[in-house]
Amino acid sequence: MIEVMKQALEALELTADRMQKQRDAITSLRQAIEQAQKQEPWVWQQAPIKTQWGDDMVVADLAIDKDHTVSVYCERDQTARVEAMFRGTNT
After folding, report:
1. How many CB atoms lie within 10 A of CB 78?
2. Which of 1, 47, 51, 80 has the maximal Cβ count within 10 Å?
3. CA distances for 44 relative to 32, 59, 88, angstroms
4. Average pLDDT in the chain
5. pTM to 2 decimals?
6. Is 51 exposed, middle or buried (CB count within 10 Å of its CB: 0-12, 13-18, 19+)?
């Protein structure tokens, strides 16, 4: 009987260890996502040909949250000003 209880305890300890490793991995991944979101989110690409404002337009898609994005269009030479405006550092 004692041997069975020891085996049950060992199984529970293994499970608890795995669960702690999973919790640690979840925490690490959340921190990585948070750090990535703090970094520069701007990836400018050539706007589609159908853009009515001309050939020099670029677009950046920014994450609002996990389910939503916003597309920001501007002239290629205005990207720094647009980024500064969104960061609240525009002059």
Report:
1. 14
2. 47
3. 23, 5, 19
4. 81
5. 0.49
6. middle
